[in-house]
Write a structure and sequence with these properties.
single chain; alpha/beta; 434 Repressor (Amino-terminal Domain); Endonuclease, Chain A; six-stranded mixed β-sheet; 6 strands; elongated
């Protein structure tokens, strides 16, 4: 089990809904455990479904009702100051919108992916293995456009541009001034060799990856070369997210049938071991950058 420090309490005036949901989840779980109550007992006393307690404690709600927070704080015996602070965080989730909830983009984001964006937005570290695509956080607009035009034939151009805007906005996490996201990308060499969008688009994409890896200390890239043969990532791509509090890490998987998330301890262990093994068998950062630059010259 991975240990986590408690997340820093967000300032109300600058807090995002996603961060407030995370902090609320952490604090509500702590209050419940301090009160020596099981989630099932809380659900019984409040006549709620137990899944509601789980969603609140894992920050899996789009909106948190202040009245629900008041009911929990009363049951847990929280003091007045704690109750007021937690209710104010709940109010933020009702009165502010995360960027992916805004009207200009929300119609192109599925509910399941909105849930993922909420997790990614508050993660302290994201580690991603990809065997077919450049990782989303490293993609250029032209690369995204080429993928979408192939995957969604007949989609109106304005819808494609909205989806591109979503991808570009996600990437702001890498360059934000306050605690930029730590991102590790492990990429199969096949990704470098597939000229998505044509040679010009792909060369620009590879140059973008190399530039980020060289200039952003929070971005690390490794390439798994063909020459190593079989390797721990051959079962497919995945994303491992780590958070700044006692909230468990998650593994995010995506395929044609849709996305899925796991917090199960055996799954976390399995994918964390796979990540570490991939990092060992792949060349280091400088060698990997050389592979990216060589691939760009050969496209």
């Amino acid at each position: 089990m991975i240990d986590h420090a408690a997340p820093e309490a967000p300032a109300i005036e600058s807090a995002t809904p996603a961060l407030c949901r995370l902090y609320l989840g952490v604090e509500l779980r702590k209050l419940r455990e301090d009160a020596s109550l099981k989630a099932a007992e809380v659900a019984r006393r409040l006549t709620w479904a137990q899944s509601k307690i789980t969603r609140l404690e894992t920050a899996d709600n789009g909106v948190v009702e202040p009245s629900d927070v008041m009911a929990l704080c009363t049951l847990y015996g929280a003091d007045r100051d704690t109750t007021e602070v937690l209710m104010s965080y709940a109010t933020v989730t009702k009165t502010k919108r995360d960027w992916w909830q805004k009207p200009d983009v929300r119609d192109v984001i599925s509910p399941s992916f909105k849930a993922y964006l909420g997790l990614e937005a508050v993660a302290s570290k994201v580690e991603n293995y990809e065997n077919e695509y450049v990782p989303g956080l490293l993609q250029t607009a032209d690369y995204v456009r080429a993928i979408l035009e192939r995957a969604h034939k007949g989609l109106p151009p304005e819808q494609i541009e909205k989806r591109i805007a979503v991808r570009m906005t996600r990437q702001e996490a890498l360059t934000r001034e306050a605690a930029p996201l730590e991102f590790t990308a492990i990429i199969n060499e096949s990704v470098l060799r597939r000229p998505v969008g044509g040679s010009e688009v792909m060369r620009a994409q590879l140059a973008h990856i190399a530039d980020l890896a060289r200039t952003r200390p929070n971005v690390k890239v490794q390439v798994v070369p063909f020459s190593i043969g079989s390797h721990p990532g051959m079962n497919g791509p995945y994303t491992f997210l780590t958070f700044p509090g006692p909230l468990k890490p998650i593994v995010y998987l995506e395929n044609l049938a849709g996305p899925s998330v796991s917090r199960r301890e055996p799954d976390l262990k399995l994918y964390q071991v796979s990540l570490r093994e991939l990092q060992v068998v792949a060349p280091g950062y400088e060698k990997s950058l050389s592979m990216i630059e060589d691939a760009s010259k050969e496209i």
